[in-house]
Here is the input.
Amino acid sequence: MATAPGRGGVAVVRVSGPAAFRIASEVTGCKVDTSMAGRFFHSAFHPVGPRVPVRQQPIDDGLVLVFASPRSYTGEDVVELQGHGGSIAPRRVLEACLAAGARLARRGEFTQRAFLNGRLDLGMAEAVIDLVDARTERGADDAAARLMGAASRPLEEMYVAAIDLSSRVEHALDFSEDELPEGFSESVSRDVARLASLVERKLSTAREGRILREGALVVLCGRPNAGKSSLMNALLGEGRAIVSDEAGTTRDTIEEGAEIGGWPVRLVDTAGLREAEGEVEREGVRRAEALVAQADVVLHVIEPGDEAPAPLGIPPSAIRVFSKCDTTPPPNRPTTQLLTSAKTGEGIDALKDAIAARLGQIAAKSAEETGADVTTRQKEALLAARTALASANGALDAGEWTIAANELRSASEALGRLLGKVYSDDLLDALFSRFCVGK
Ligand SMILES: Nc1nc2c(ncn2[C@@H]2O[C@H](COP(=O)(O)OP(=O)(O)OP(=O)(O)O)[C@@H](O)[C@H]2O)c(=O)[nH]1
Ligand SMILES: [Mg+2]
Here is the structure.
């Protein structure tokens, strides 16, 4: 079933594999074969199976789309039976297909077959699920671009360049230094450096990818009563967190998904940071500190009149947000600070802009500085390629051609993994289990 269950205009049952045309023929009672490829027709759908009476009553009618191998999503023969939505008719069409010899698809199996049949590469397969799961326009734009191969082309070029370098150096091993053409070593070094900079650039975008997929962690912290929960509500535009003038109102962390400046964000409100009084509050403070440590962006909320140094654990990179600005008369306000009021809404848009700007910076920053939290398949492969290229460069400088050849081979293997030219079953299982059935 390729469409979501429940009430809806259409429901699509998709059949792929060598028996697809035969199964569709049984269900529709029309002869479906390769000659119908790329066409569609209108038909009744019939029940199939030994217990079905001879004068059978159709279960639905709809459109039949025929795709012949290899020009289909999976690369196999594919038929789509597009009937009416709802809970009964689609289920019956599905059952008819099963009775005619089909089996239920596993999660992501259509896309997995497409990958195995070379219809898309692993990066595109990942883009498919990212597009389905996208929570913001920006995330969807990114996934759609990757789906069209925007990310694969440069990767493919890097892979080809690595293979080329590796074979050039391997070839050179058969010759002595003075038999090699003039400038050979320089040209290899230059190309290694060029490839290394491509890898570097690609790495720098890995963080942005993670943020788009998982959402950036934005944590509100500060002293009790600073106005954190009120700001959380103002950013969300709803009364999500409890607000009161009692210090220590928020004890547990409160998380809510939001979109800020096009970025998907996990906004978290935390307990005020102080020497906590009770066991519960102490745990709340501990959680707050842990979240601050993991955050992509920390918002340090400071209320008017609070001149004390920042509580421990708040990083210097935190955005200092001054709250309750409606309570300070304008002449006394410092103009360079980010002044906000949850009460009047003043400064909330400026705060959103500041968060979005920070996320843009993080995305642009090199992955090297961003720590170990980006553990995507792609990043691991890129890091391996980078290490290998750096060693290859060193070996070339030292005239160690055998070592250079080995390192260049590892670099091309790593880039091959990145493209999915080299992959393991575990990797495929992990990737495609993220999919829904029918994709
Ligand atoms: N005038 C004014 N009062 C505010 C504003 N924001 C918060 N307050 C008040 O400040 C008090 C504390 O607000 P909270 O949002 O609960 O503060 P908090 O930082 O979450 O406090 P804890 O959860 O106890 O750490 C409440 O009485 C709010 O009504 C504001 O922008 N203007
Ligand atoms: Mg609170």
